[in-house]
Amino acid sequence: MTRTNQEVRDLPAGERPPYTAQSAAEGVHSVIRMIEGRWKLVILFQLFGGQVRRFSDLERAIPGVSQKMLIQQLRQLEADGLVARIVHPQVPPKVEYHLTAWGQSLCPALDGLLRWAEAAP
């Protein structure tokens, strides 16, 4: 029996793992689960470009979102590693949000989807 460390090897830098139709579909589906939700894409677009936004600024910029829903969506984005939260120790509390580097790297993909949607017949 071989050991796990002998079976698993890192890919050389820049190489992608080989995908099957099933594994590619699963990978894309996991990303879609991260960004699905009524407000997540709006939140992401509010934070693209290195924007750092306070909670109250996001709440004002997204009409129709409740505080509860905004908090829930931000927490999910934070748990998935797309958004970072900064809490400033002051009274009243000041909480700011910004995209992580990984979250910011989602921008070109969403831009591509937008261009694709614009070209729809």
Describe this protein's structure:
The model is unreliable at 1-6 (pLDDT under 50). This protein has one domain (22-118): Arc Repressor Mutant, subunit A (Orthogonal Bundle), CATH 1.10.10.10. It has a three-stranded antiparallel β-sheet with strand order 1-3-2. With 121 residues, the protein is mainly α. It is globular. It has helices at residues 4-7, 21-35, 40-47, 55-61, 67-79, 101-104, 107-118, and strands at residues 53-54, 83-88, 94-99.
List keywords for this structure.
single chain, 121 residues, mainly alpha, Arc Repressor Mutant, subunit A, three-stranded antiparallel sheet, 7 helices, disordered N terminus
Topology of helices and strands:
Blueprint lengths: L3 H4 L13 H15 L4 H8 L5 E2 H7 L5 H13 L3 E6 L5 E6 L1 H4 L2 H12 L3
